[in-house]
Amino acid sequence: MDLELLELQTEYLNDLPDKLDLIYELLLSIEKEEDIDESLNNLKGIIHSIKGSSGSYEISFLSELCHSFEDELDLLTKDKNKVLINCFYFYELLKEFSDFYIAGEEADLDPFYNKLSELSHSNNIHTSTSSSKQKDLSKKILIITDDEFFKDAIMLSLEKLNTKFYFLKKTRSFKNDDDPDFIFLVSPEKADVKQLKSISPQTQVISLNFEDNVNFLPSDFARILISHHLVRDIRHGYLALLQKEENIHIEKEAHPENILFVDDDESIHPLVKVAFKAYKDIKMNYCHSAKEAQEVLKSFTPDLILLDSMMPEISGKEFKKLLSEDENLKDIPVLFLTGLDSKKEIEELKNLGAVDVICKPFKIKELAGQVLKIWSEI
Q1: Which of 110, 176, 302, 312 is deepest in the core (most CB within 10 A)?
Q2: Taking Cα atoms as reference points, which of 252, 286, 257 lies closest to residue 269?
Q3: Which ranges in 122-229 belong to alpha helices (H)?
């Protein structure tokens, strides 16, 4: 794990107990109150914030847990007594995970996923292994393995991504006129690596390994470390690689000189700073509210505004409307960040005049590339 990310994760996890205490207090308030709207909205805001930020900090289980918790909270007004019991169970699972998880250490999360599955199925909530919408990828995939189980697992992992598959049992059967976009190798041997490098040096090879200490793999081979969650591991690793490949093409393009970032979630700010750290020629200005941004805009003219859609007092949507009504600010491109990844939400944000929408959680190493790619297409 990247040392910088490890430090950020550790700091984030150290701050988590305070948020959990607040969640517990709000659940108690909801239990006692007849009019639960204010407490429920505050609770939804905290859970929503943890869902987005933990995903961006690459603590996937925490993000998935909060995603299911959010769905549960939506049922509270329909059957308060029954659903509230489940909400306390979600809180207990959050606390248990917070006490258990240590950044950078290998951990068996199967018991936590099993508990989450039991909680979610108790109210027929669907848990998602990927919280962001993925676009049509149209890639040609070669799978080299003589193990039918792994062949089926890879196909299942990448289903609905418009991928075309073909198969070989042995590396020696591969010819350079096959021309795939990606090659999947399962626990490759040295001979496999040598042959592929000589025949097709430009093709991206993805090695599926059970251990992380395979020293003979070239540095340009992508590695996916697989666990008991085989399908999820393969899918997440593949999609991350596609995003990285796409971002490489736009890194050297012209980019904005000044960016204003507005998000009320304090935990997101360090991630964005790390994401843009390599771009020394981009001046970043950070705000925690729309009101603060309004003051900054009196003396700072950004080429692009990165704006969180959900903020207290003045929401991102309301702030975008205010910008559109200001003759001096209406032409500044606005790129929304949102933890609500429904088609309706994204369309609503775009209809406000946003150049695009990035769904939370985002990956630190991919955010700058996503932003600059969108900028290059304005």
Answers
A1: 302
A2: 286
A3: 148-157, 190-199
- Pick from 114-123, 129-138, 362-371 the range whose average pLDDT is largest: 362-371
| Residue 170 pLDDT | 81
> Is the peptide bond preceding residue 256 cis, with omega within 30 degrees of 0?
no
Predicted pLDDT of residue 294:
97
CA distance linking residue 127 with residue 70, whole number of Å: 11
Domains of the chain (ranges, CATH numbers): 3-121 (1.20.120.160), 140-248 (3.40.50.2300), 258-376 (3.40.50.2300)
Q: In terms of DSSP bridges, do strands 164-168 and 140-144 run parallel, antiparallel, or are they unpaired?
A: parallel
> What's the angle, vertex CA 118, arms to CA 115 and CA 122, rounded to 5?
145
d(CA 223, CA 136): 23
pLDDT in tens, 165-186: 888 888 777 776 667 888 888 8
pLDDT digit string (tens) for 132-174?
333 444 688 888 888 887 787 788 777 666 778 888 888 777 7
CA distance 118 to 120: 6
C-beta of residue 146 within 8 angstroms of C-beta of residue 223: no
Using the predicted structure, report yes or no on whether residue 226 has a pLDDT greater than 70. no
